[in-house]
Write a structure and sequence with these properties.
Layout (H helix, E strand, L loop, with lengths): L2 E3 L6 E3 L5 H30 L6 H6 L6 H11 L3 H14 L2 H8 L2 H17 L6 H9 L1 H34 L3 H44 L10 H14 L16 H19 L2 H9 L5 H12 L1 H17 L14 H5 L3 H50 L5 H28 L4 H12 L3 H9 L5 H27 L4 H4 L2 H13 L1 H11 L23 H7 L2 E2 L2 E2 L7 H26 L1 H6 L6 H29 L1 H13 L10 H5 L15
Antiparallel strand pairs: 1-2, 3-4
Helix pairs in contact: 1-8, 1-9, 1-16, 1-28, 3-9, 3-13, 3-27, 4-5, 4-8, 4-14, 4-16, 5-11, 5-14, 6-11, 6-12, 6-13, 6-25, 7-8, 8-9, 8-16, 8-17, 8-18, 8-20, 9-14, 9-16, 9-17, 9-27, 10-14, 10-27, 11-18, 11-22, 12-16, 13-25, 13-27, 14-16, 14-27, 16-17, 18-22, 19-20, 20-22, ...
Length: 683
């Protein structure tokens, strides 16, 4: 039975549509199966193309050789949080058509902008493994500890945000105990990341993203196959009727079918600030940027960022519209009542909509994509924290002459330690009454203080050491004070409920994000400094050549399909500046397109979507989502076909490279042919 109904027909307890054993099978059995497959793939790559994860450069940065297709897929996957799908439907249900749009617009611009930061890092300090290495070299030990604190806070709350939403959804689908789900979700992730390192993260990103997008494509079709919806025209009528029954406070005419939504625009402001913090202060993004080949960073992040936009926009718009339209229909799980605020804030809009259109099959689909999304993104977070523990703590302060084996061992410790701490912290938040909705709104207060200081550290040579140390700490203190003070001023008390409301979170997030800008500028003016970017090259970060360092590999193969790989090559910096110009253009274009040219005219005109406009809006979103599927699913295969061919031949003919020598077929995919021409910078 799908749900139980009290005698009065109003108080309804939604029963899990799937048995508890299904939850354990997905979380434990499938998780361990994927981990086993990834361990096998890791060993296969070592045997066929000499990708040895017992070497630090391979474990952390994949020898800086990941190509564009796999980079783009990994970028999509890095933001394909369970929160993205559950949260986009949540804000769509709460604010209407504007919610999923602002969710998507709060993600794509900073992903594309990171292409500019990534290529700048590779140009100025190509041997780096983490953001924190850059901070330590430029500003010293105190700043290094400050950034470690900021980055670990970022990673910890990001993972808690994922686990809270995913665990609640899994519990709603299967009845599995929420704490069991919280602790078991990281198990498979920890296992395959422990063995495979960053390359395993890239590969699992690809597999998980493929499965998630197949299910998303299913959800773009299924609503129109049931008689209760049937067509875009009928869905429009259902959403319009929902607005008439339950007008949205702050929306023009109370309708769900308008971009003129106070709640929507406030969420958009929170979300874009918060996500700039999540990207820039997430060491995992820097690790992936360093792992990408020089030519792959910009196109990988630009393609991935633009493609990602369709997932929260398309899926969130469609499934929140389904939930709103069917909520008064007997097929909806909570009928005849509306969803409660607890259900909405736990991220159950998407699961309930899926159950309404596809029954147990819909519940199973949501269960699977939730599991895939949280484990994929959790893997990136785990490897990021692992790199901090091994490189920035152990190698820097405990054993400065650490060998490959030492750093790998501490990377393994880091993977396990963070997996346990993240699950325990998420459990603590659950027991004090914090859910997905609360973390979704307040996250930026803690993740944003480092945005401007970090950007200045990479792009502005004049930011002083004092400014770098003081401004993010002052920014965090300012943000927290404004957040808590606003909650008390507006609602008379500081509680979990009041601090999770929109306005305190908006004020706190904006203060946290922007106050470090004047702090940094003023402190720098008082005590100016001028850093010489060439100083980065004076510090040796890669391991010795006999340890198979990435720089050794780069020297052996200085040209790859017209790309200048060797940082010692005089053409390297002009080559990277060329890509930096492309990244700057796309960063500006994406922000202007997603935040100014597209939404603001619709917002300012107070336009209420007509039926043709609504239909076009959804059709474009669905087509974009299908294109995202093609990019994530097939671009990596096409782009990496040479290495796949090498692996196939090695397995077929029994060739291997245990001796450390790559067979001729493998070498041909990395070395230039007579038809390859070196990159030439045009004057």
């Amino acid at each position: 039975m799908l749900f139980n109904r009290a005698d009065d027909g109003v108080d309804i307890v939604v029963q899990p549509p799937l048995p508890q054993v299904v939850g354990y099978i997905v979380v434990v059995v499938i998780g361990l199966f994927i981990a086993t497959v990834m361990i096998f793939v890791t060993k296969l790559l070592k045997a066929t193309v000499n990708e040895d994860n017992s070497k630090t450069e391979m474990f952390i940065t994949a020898n800086r050789s990941v190509r564009t297709g796999l980079t783009a897929s990994a970028v999509i996957s890095s933001w394909l949080w369970s929160t993205a799908m559950l949260g986009a439907a949540l804000v769509g249900y709460s604010n209407g058509i504007s919610g999923p749009y602002w969710f998507a617009a709060g993600c794509s611009p900073m992903i594309v902008f990171f292409s500019f930061l990534g290529v700048s890092c590779k140009m100025k300090i190509p041997q780096a493994h983490t953001l924190l290495e850059i901070i330590r070299i430029r500003y010293g030990t105190v700043a290094h500890f400050v950034w470690m604190f900021l980055c670990l806070i970022n990673n910890l709350f990001a993972v808690a945000n994922m686990l809270l939403g995913a665990s609640a959804a899994i519990t709603a689908m299967t009845g599995m105990h929420i704490i069991a789900a919280t602790f078991l979700l990281p198990v498979g992730v920890v296992l395959y990341t422990f063995v495979g390192g960053i390359k395993a993260t890239f590969l699992t990103d690809y597999i998980h993203t493929f499965i998630i997008l197949v299910i998303c494509i299913f959800f773009t079709i299924k609503p129109f196959t049931i008689p209760e919806i049937g067509s875009l025209s009928n869905l429009y009528d259902l959403v319009a009727a929902a607005g008439a029954r339950n007008p949205v406070p702050g929306n023009h005419n109370g309708t769900y079918l308008t971009m003129t939504s106070k709640g929507g625009i406030l969420f958009g402001i929170i979300h874009i600030c918060c996500n700039f913090g999540l990207v820039i202060m997430d060491t995992g993004y820097f690790v992936k940027a360093f792992a990408a080949s020089p030519k792959a960073v910009v196109p990988g992040y630009v393609i991935g960022g633009v493609a990602y936009f369709a997932i929260p926009w398309g899926l969130g718009t469609l499934m929140s519209s389904v939930a709103l339209g069917l909520e008064n229909n007997p097929i909806f799980p909570t009928f005849p009542r509306r969803m409660t605020s607890t259900e909405v804030n736990n991220g159950l809009v998407l699961p309930y909509a899926a159950m309404a259109i596809a029954g147990k099959g819909g519940a199973a689909a949501v269960l699977l994509i939730t599991f895939m999304a949280v484990t994929s993104t959790l893997s990136a977070q785990v490897i990021a924290v692992s790199s901090i523990i091994s490189f920035d703590i152990y190698r820097t302060y405990i054993k400065t002459d650490a060998t490959d084996a030492d750093v790998i061992r501490w990377s393994h410790y880091g993977v396990v330690i963070f997996g346990v701490i993240a699950a325990a912290f998420s459990t603590l938040l659950h027991y004090v009454g914090i859910n997905l909705g609360w973390t979704l709104y307040m996250l930026g207060v803690l993740t944003c203080p480092g945005i401007f200081p970090t950007v200045f550290s990479i792009l502005w040579s004049r930011q002083s050491k004092a400014a770098a140390i003081i401004s993010p700490l002052l920014g965090m203190a300012t943000g927290v004070a404004v957040w808590l003070g606003s909650a008390h001023a507006l609602y008379g008390e500081v509680t979990i409920t009041t601090t999770g409301n929109v306005l305190p979170c908006v004020y706190g997030t904006v203060a946290s994000a922007f106050s470090p800008l004047p702090y940094s500028l003023i402190i720098t003016l008082i005590k100016p400094q001028n850093f010489d970017w060439a100083d980065f090259s004076k510090t040796k970060l890669s391991f010795d050549e006999d340890n198979n360092s990435s720089i050794t590999d780069i020297k052996k193969n200085s040209t790859f399909e017209g790309e200048v790989n060797n940082p010692l090559d005089p053409r390297y910096k002009p080559f990277m500046k060329h890509w930096a110009n492309i990244a700057a253009f796309w960063s500006s274009a994406t922000f202007l397109g997603h935040w100014v040219l597209w939404p603001l005219p619709i917002y300012a005109s107070r336009y209420v979507f007509s039926k043709p406009f609504f239909s076009t809006w959804l059709v474009v979103a669905i087509i974009w989502l299908w294109c995202t599927f093609l990019v994530a699913a097939f671009f990596p295969i096409i782009d990496g076909r040479q290495q796949l061919y090498t692996i196939f031949n090695s397995v077929r003919y029994g060739r291997n490279s245990h001796s450390g020598e790559v067979d001729e077929t493998a070498r041909s995919s990395f070395e230039p042919t007579k038809n390859d021409e070196p990159y030439v910078v045009k004057e």
